[in-house]
Amino acid sequence: MVGRLWFLVLMLFSVCIGISHASAGDINPIYRSCVNQCLSEGCIGDRCFDQCKVPSSTSSADSPWYLQKPLYVKWKQSGCLSDCRYHCMDHAETERQALGHNPVKYHGKWPFKRVIGLQEPVSVALSILNLLMHLCGWLSFSKLIYYKLPLKQNSTYYEYTTLWHIYAFLSMNSWFWSAVFHSRDVDFTEKLDYSSAVAVLGCSLTISLMRSFHVRVEAARVMVAAPLLAFTVTHILYLNFYKMDYGWNMQVCVVMAVAQLLVWAVWAGVTRHPSRLKLWFVVIAGGLAMLLEIYDFPPYEGFVDAHALWHAATVPLTYCWWSFIKDDAKFRTSDLVKKAK
């Protein structure tokens, strides 16, 4: 059942990848005319933008430090092109709404309403919440490992402690850049968001294989981790320095996500782990949550779309996941302590 579910998810993603990236909103002649006029004149009706009035031959970076704007002001001001696109989109959507038409995408994205300069405020808030959930889970895990469970002379009994530390760091890093990317979508933040997400997937796939197949010997761990690490790093370098291929990146991410969830699902079905029900819950609920990435719909009131709901769904899943990790640490430590005696 779970295998069929993930096969369906993979097929649906493959269909989505084949869809053209052209959006109905940004090919609208009225919208394009509005943007071009804004770029040339620096105004849309009575609204004008200071950053569009700066001569192209000058740059704020060339100005003396005492004339440059503070960083938080630069962060809120997304540049002439971004502001022109946003306000032309807002004007076009107001007219479409008056005519009873549904919202359309612009440059591959739904029209969102900005709040204090944040492009997708709900996704930003939920990304920060996910980061905090991982931080709390990691701190709770560390407290359990180092202060509550028995320790060996130079290390913990739990064989996967270091791997979960790495996973926690990469997860928090990923959610941090997710918050940054959703607050300001530029080339730099996009690459960091995509790269950090790939890094988490590569790490979690490695952990799933090592834990499910009970890989404890150092040489065997290297044999499992080395090819996965090499592929993950190569893919990240490809995205950053060769080509930002969205279709290929989606295929890579889906394959890695489905592979690790299938590994966990199979292991949960054959193991007698005392917390296997928590693992089943994370696997099945995680699969259902991924469907939100497929069922795309316009943002409600300009704020909440399917992607934001996916961010919301991952909050309780993160709590359950770290709960399983702590239970696994207790289970393995207890078993190893008994064998040591």
From TrEMBL:
Domain of life from the UniProt record: Eukaryota
Main location: membrane
GO CC annotations on file: endoplasmic reticulum membrane; Golgi membrane
Keywords carried by this UniProt record: Golgi apparatus, GPI-anchor biosynthesis, Membrane, Signal, Transmembrane, Transmembrane helix
Membrane topology, from the record: Multi-pass membrane protein
GO MF annotation, one: hydrolase activity, acting on ester bonds
Role description: Involved in the lipid remodeling steps of GPI-anchor maturation.
Name assigned to this protein: Post-GPI attachment to proteins factor 3
Species this chain originates from: Saponaria officinalis (Common soapwort)
Source taxonomy: Eukaryota, Viridiplantae, Streptophyta, Embryophyta, Tracheophyta
